[in-house]
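Anyone? Bumping this.
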Amino acid sequence: MRCLVVLLAVGCGEVHFVDPNPPELFRTTAHIQAGLVDEPVVWMTILDLFVEDAGGCAAAKQATLDAVRAAFATAGGAQMELPFQDLSPDCQKRAEVPLDVAAVKAAFAKADANFPQAHVRPVLVYLDDIDLPLPAQVSSALQSLHATSVAGGATRPILWTVTFPSASNKLGSDSVFAWTFTGDPALQQNLAAMVESNLPLRSTTQPGPIPLLGPADMETTVELKLCDPPDGFKLVDNIPVGQAVQLDRANPPRVLLNLPPIFFDQMRASQLIPAVDITVERCTGNCHRFYIGQPGDAPRRWDEIDGCVLGDPQ
Amino acid sequence: MRRALVLAALLSPAAFAQVRVEPRLLVKDHRWFVSGGLTWLERGDYYNSPGFLAQASYYLRENDAVEVRAIVFASWLGSSADEVFQNTGLVPDAQKPVSLLAAGWRHSLAYGKVTTGSSVLHFDLQGGADLGLLITDRAANPALLGFFGVAARLGNHLYGQFDLALMGSIESRSTTVFTMGFLPVLTLGAAL
């Protein structure tokens, strides 16, 4: 009887067994951010203009093309204009010539081949000056192109339409501008503003392989555990999550994050760069000794526990 | 004849009967009582903690004294905890008692005498309280002692004392706890 009944009534003070040499544990968080690269600006103009005076057709088309080209020129960087499509060659009948989907796709492929290291995401600019719903064949062709996979399936084209609401409805464009009139400076300004805020597109790059420990931590760490698999990222290095591994200073632990390319326009790129915190629990000594979380908890050897044991660092 | 009757009366059993009043011999007023002895701290901490102590009391008046105690413990891990340590390396989170320094007040509750064969033992029933520090292998912790005991006169200047103390202290273990334990104290000393 270690404590007499009287003392038991008032409590003797709880005694728990502890490890006099517990594991020396620390939590380290590595903040890893994806890189961003500018992608080439690849674009194509699709014209479907009606001009009452057929004699002004060529001039109207040229003025419109010039406006689009001038707007895209402001994007800078690597650029490639794909051959434009003209659905109304003499400006007298809307959608007189069907949109050559095969030719457009071939142009996409050519752009892809032209920038083998990049993720090409073409911008289709559809210009139409008739305030009527689109003919079904034009609408379906544009939607088909809009849904086409490019860059090996990584992306799909962007569709900007410059037309009247009656025509742009249900087209699923990424951006819509109101058509005014041929040669309107505001048309070019609107396009230029759109180009400026969106292009060149930027895409994420693989951040890694990234060392999990800094030089100071490398000096002191004996064993380590990777605490949690990061959300939205995929670890491809051979570091088991939650398992204690001996630190090999000759081959410091690194992680390679398998991050799919994500595209951003210029406006959002700086705010939305994917990032992840990778938490590591480091043991600097007595790693095989007992860890006891709360008084009275069963003692467990740290390097045999599946997972990290320390709370979030303050 | 008259003389014979008077002598007979004087020699009768009634004449031999006498009332003897044992004077109070354990007098403490304005005297020092200094003693040393043995103790054992039992507080359920998996340590065996015998101790040696010295204490001194000065009686400000017959029934009240101030006192100081110093105890040195020779603590070692008990067999059950030692077995755990040998098998796993784990030890109790209780601190190992090293010494106790305390000072306080002692009060005489009652004076008594008891005949032991041909002699009479004079004793005092006492109680009191001390405040002090329980010094352990890791810290000096505040401690409070309350005790009852007896002090008995064993000779002209020799006395013995036994106190049964209840000791509480605040100690940092895995968490901060209030611990309680028994501290029986047996001393032998001199009244100066």
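Late reply, but here is one note on the structure posted above: Helices of chain A lie at 5-10, 57-73, 101-114, 136-146, 165-168, 185-198, 215-220, 266-269.
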